[in-house]
Design goal:
The protein is mainly alpha-helical. Helix content is 82%, strand content 0%. Helix 4 (101-128) packs antiparallel against helix 7 (158-174).
Length: 464
């Protein structure tokens, strides 16, 4: 009974916020305190896409296809954001482990400034060439005419995505993971309220159609960023900022960019391969794209909690290396990997039981449901491999060794996934199912390569 009381107390502490030093104490407790808010954060991040698809699906398969194709292009934005987040995590967690909170705060500011500058360079061409980008992705003329404003709004508002990712990485890597979770609670609540109002209209508010989903999501995330900045300037948490901090520190900026380039490259390699997969799938029609789009949203919803656990491993590795405890860093990764495999394995089993049911929650078109159910069934075969691969790659990133995952991604996604997808789908005529099998093959290869490199122990020697 006493054990359960301690467990419940730890769960409450993880959600409400903790002052725990993650380089000391029981590893199991450290993993629990970090994982719960990070899992909830990632679940909430996926809610944006789930909510958008839920409301947009009422507009038909063309609208759903536009959302799917736009999100595929937006993966480049996510890739850059996650790359900067990886560099931020490596530096901030290492400085926190070294008990240098001021140095951690300086690194956080450099990351925010870099993200803001990069996002502006992407926003303008994204808005101007929205129609051309959709045409390039294989959208039909009717779908482009109906939905290009969704794409323009999402690309133009990418700054809020960039900053939301980066600042949440600052909170996570410093040990204030509960803050990231609260920010997404606020942002998602706004999105859920605004989505149906802006898509279908309400009272004096006109119906914006599919563009309304983009306006709602951008507004929700924007309010979330303002909340983040308020907390950073409140001086109440591990990272404390003031306006005087927003000046360039060339040495720190160069170090951040160097680390982030590896993170950006690995994510661009991974996410651009998804664009290639969508391009192959688009040859089989809008119904297939719509089914795949909804299925991917469901899969992301189930996979992002596993990313949350992986982020916990990244923070623990960085902080323990900073504290001079490399063996504790290694143990934290292996334990977290085992936990992730168990949880994601159970999730995959639940999906396999009835994939049609999960699809029917979002759309009633039986053709689209069948196509999406096939995607859910096949891709979920690899869940245990995904779980282990995520933790290994994120742990290596947390050590500041961001270039090794880049090479792993290059091998798995562009030397294995895309060629295998094309061969199975187009040459062997497995069609879209061939694409789904290629995902399982590539992600399993990533798990194997990640384990082999992590076991080598070379990441322990990385200086950040």
């Amino acid at each position: 009974m006493q054990r359960y009381k301690h467990l419940w107390r730890d769960i409450i502490e993880s959600i409400s916020g903790t002052e725990q030093d993650f380089s000391t104490g029981r590893l199991s407790r450290a993993i629990l305190l970090l994982s719960i808010p990070m899992v909830l954060e990632m679940v909430l991040e996926s809610v944006f896409a789930i909510v958008d698809i839920f409301f947009v699906s009422g507009l038909g398969s063309n609208a759903v296809a536009i959302v799917g194709l736009t999100e595929s292009m937006m993966t480049i934005i996510y890739a850059i954001s996650m790359g900067l987040s990886a560099g931020t995590t490596a530096i901030v967690s290492r400085r926190i482990g070294e008990k240098l909170p001021r140095a951690a705060s300086i690194a956080a500011v450099q990351s925010i400034m870099a993200g803001f500058a990069i996002s502006l360079t992407l926003a303008i061409p994204g808005m101007i060439y929205a129609k051309d980008l959709l045409a390039l992705m294989g959208a039909s003329p009717k779908a482009i005419a109906d939905g290009w404003k969704f794409t323009a709004t999402m690309m133009g508002g990418n700054v809020v995505i960039m900053l939301l990712f980066i600042i949440n990485a600052v909170f996570r890597s410093s040990g204030d993971a509960a803050i990231s979770m609260r920010v997404l609670w606020a942002a998602n609540l706004l999105n859920i309220v605004l989505d149906p109002i802006l898509i279908y209209g309400w009272g004096p508010i006109p119906a914006f159609g599919v563009q309304g989903a983009a306006i709602a999501t951008t507004t929700g995330r924007g309010i979330g960023v303002l909340f983040q900045l308020y907390l950073l300037f409140s001086q109440k948490y591990r990272i404390k900022l003031s306006l005087a901090d927003f000046i360039p520190y060339p040495k720190v900026m160069i170090q951040l960019i160097r680390l982030s380039l590896g993170g950006m490259a690995q994510n661009i390699i991974a996410t651009s391969s998804w664009i290639g997969l969508v391009r192959i799938i688009s040859t089989f029609g809008s119904d297939v794209v719509a089914g795949y789009t909804i299925a991917i949203r469901i899969l992301i919803f189930t996979l992002l909690p596993a990313w949350g656990i992986s982020n916990a491993a990244s923070t623990l590795v960085g902080q323990n290396l900073g504290a001079g405890k490399p063996e504790r860093a290694a143990r934290s990764a292996w334990i977290t990997g085992l936990v992730n495999m168990v949880l994601l394995g159970l999730t995959g089993f639940l999906i396999l039981l009835n994939p049609h049911f999960y699809m029917s929650l979002f759309i009633h078109d039986p053709v689209v449901i069948n196509y999406g159910a096939d995607a859910l069934r096949i891709i979920s075969y690899g869940y245990i491999s995904y779980a282990l691969g995520m933790v290994m790659v994120q742990s290596i990133n947390g050590a500041g060794d961001t270039y090794i995952p880049m090479f792993i991604n290059l091998i798995c996604f562009w030397m294995i996934e895309v060629p295998v997808a094309y061969f199975l789908a187009m040459v062997l005529d497995f069609k879209q199912e061939g694409v789904y099998y290629s995902i399982v093959i590539a992600e399993s290869a990533m798990a194997i390569l990640g384990v082999l490199w992590f076991r080598s122990g070379r990441w322990k020697l990385k200086k950040v």
